Amino acid sequence: MSLIINIDTATEVAHVSIAKDGVVLQQAFNANQMDHAGFLQVAVKDILNKADIDFAQIDAIAVTIGPGSYTGLRVGLASAKGLCYALNKPLITIGTLDVIAKSALISSKKNSFKTNTLLCPMIDARRMEVFTAVFDQSLQTVLSACALVLDDNSFKELLEGYHIAFFGNGSKKWKEICHYPNSIFMDIDINPFAMSQLSKEKYDNKDFSDLAYTEPMYIKEFYLNTI
User: Fold this and answer.
1) What is the CATH number of domain 3-95+190-218?
2) Same-fold call for 3-95+190-218 versus 97-185
3) Cβ neighbourhood burial of 6 (10 Å; 0-12, 13-18, 19+)
4) Taking the complete model, does pTM exceed 0.90, yes or no?
């Protein structure tokens, strides 16, 4: 059995949850991106109280590591590290794009993707730039997380052989210039259940991050302008 606190402050809507064996017991959201820091600690205590769980019972702390808002990533990771240090519990880090892609898979269960459909979450990075990656439906990486300036030829090679589902708040700007018939656009909200499943998998595999040296994955240093 695992009890894991999940923290996501990487995007405009923050969420925290407490999950037992990957099932969310309590959750809280904050849509004011400027107040993620003030929201987080209060929300963690609140969901634990509502779930009647003590801090000592927690097995691990999971946090989205990036990409995303610079400030949001720092807030989330600092809080997660602080909890891990105080409770002597392991740290689990999960890519923000992985969580968004997993949310899309959960959302699409009623209308399953075709077998040759890839998943492309996008986070708005201002102007025509997005943070993005491409996954297959097993969440295996097809294109590693990168910062991409969108143009008419973005994803051209992949779209010649696959359908690609695009989603996330950065996909709106791509939809405006995309002319490929194999493109699918979806409205997807980050689902706390997606993160709880991913954190459980990492906990079961003892895939923990170093508490002292783990840093946010900003990915700007891996900047690419074409695919």
Assistant:
1) 3.30.420.40
2) yes
3) buried
4) yes
**What are 77-101's pLDDT values in tens digits?**
999 999 999 999 999 999 999 999 9
Q: What is the mean pLDDT of residues 160-175?
A: 96
Question: In whole angstroms, what is the distance from residue 179 CA to residue 173 CA?
Answer: 12
Buried b / exposed e over 98-118, threshold 16 CB at 10 Å, is bbbbbbbbebbeeeebeeebb
Per-residue pLDDT reduced to its tens digit, 21-51: 999 999 999 998 788 888 999 999 999 999 9
In b/e form, how buried is each residue of 176-205, taking b as 16+ CB within 10 angstroms?
eebeeebbbeeebbbbbbbbbbbbbebbee
So what's the pLDDT on residue 35? Answer: 85
Alpha helices in 108-225, H assignment, sequence order: 156-161, 171-177, 192-204
Q: Give me the sign of the Cα torsion angle 193, 194, 197, 199.
A: negative
Instruction: Enter the DSSP assignment of 201.
Output: H
Side chain identity at residue 134, one-letter code: V
Position 221 confidence tier, pLDDT thresholds 50, 70, 90 = low
CA neighbor of 8 nearest in space, from 54, 77, 57: 77
Domain residue ranges in the chain: 3-95+190-218, 97-185
